[in-house]
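Appendix C: a fully annotated inverse folding record. The material below is reproduced so that readers can follow the format used throughout the book. The structure is listed first as tokens, followed by the designed sequence.
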């Protein structure tokens, strides 16, 4: 096996100078290239990415899926490993990927990668952390990101064979509770627009159930109850986020019918 694997790591970023060093540092000594696609950072993200050896591209923000497809198209290798700027592959995962390539091309076309949250007061994921396992390591000729501006998921070609890696990506998505609310508020704008674009209609009856159902989904289903007070607060944030998504969707529908909303009602 050569020192560097035939893998292109790609990262999309905007204003991530406080976090992007972790994913780059974790992989830069053993992958073929690192591609960072920036969508208008005003901090030191671009300078830091270049300084750490990444190839920097700039592209105005088109949405999550299209931005990741743009990154895919500019990667030199067929094997791709996608990381977000707030993620860091654990040493165990790096070793697992190296072992996967130790005999040449891996036998499958794509690999699901477990991702666990790390809260701001934690150094590593809790044993009780909620884990998602999306495809993150894959062959470009057998899988690509979906073009959805909201849902960033890998779509596999017919017949593509998948496996699952065992070791974790550490996900430090939360800078603070307030910053999470800000980010989720922006994301619900995109989701409401996406529902319109796909002509989806969510029932107003969901207003009664959306908040409590979402809270219990996060608090019990995602095991936030195992994380103490902070887990309770995060479950509340998740419920607020899901409520806002529905509320903004319904507000847009009312506006199309000509019903005044707080933003359109005339002054008295």
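Designed amino acids, in order:
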């Amino acid at each position: 096996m050569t020192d560097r694997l035939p893998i292109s790591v790609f990262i999309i970023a905007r204003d991530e100078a406080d976090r992007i060093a972790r994913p780059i540092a974790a992989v830069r000594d053993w992958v073929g290239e690192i591609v960072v696609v920036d969508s208008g950072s005003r901090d030191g993200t671009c300078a830091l990415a270049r300084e750490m050896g990444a190839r920097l591209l700039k592209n105005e923000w088109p949405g999550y899926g299209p931005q990741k497809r743009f990154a895919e198209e500019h990667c030199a290798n067929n094997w791709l490993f996608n990381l977000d700027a707030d993620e860091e592959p654990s040493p165990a995962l790096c070793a697992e990927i190296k072992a996967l390539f130790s005999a040449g091309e891996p036998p499958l076309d794509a690999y699901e990668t477990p991702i666990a949250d790390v809260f701001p007061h934690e150094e590593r994921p809790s044993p009780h952390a909620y884990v998602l396992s999306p495809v993150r390591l894959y062959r470009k000729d057998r899988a690509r990101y979906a073009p959805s501006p909201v849902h960033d998921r890998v779509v596999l070609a017919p017949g593509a064979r998948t496996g699952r890696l065992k070791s974790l990506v550490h996900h430090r998505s939360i800078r603070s509770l307030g910053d999470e609310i800000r980010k989720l508020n922006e994301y619900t704008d995109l989701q409401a627009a996406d529902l319109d674009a796909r002509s989806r209609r969510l029932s107003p009856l969901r207003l009664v159930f959306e908040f409590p159902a979402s809270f219990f989904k996060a608090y019990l289903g995602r095991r936030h109850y195992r994380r103490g007070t902070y887990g309770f607060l995060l479950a509340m944030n998740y419920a607020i986020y899901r409520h806002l998504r529905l509320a903004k969707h319904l507000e847009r529908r009312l506006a199309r019918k000509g019903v005044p909303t707080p933003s359109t009602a005339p002054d008295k």
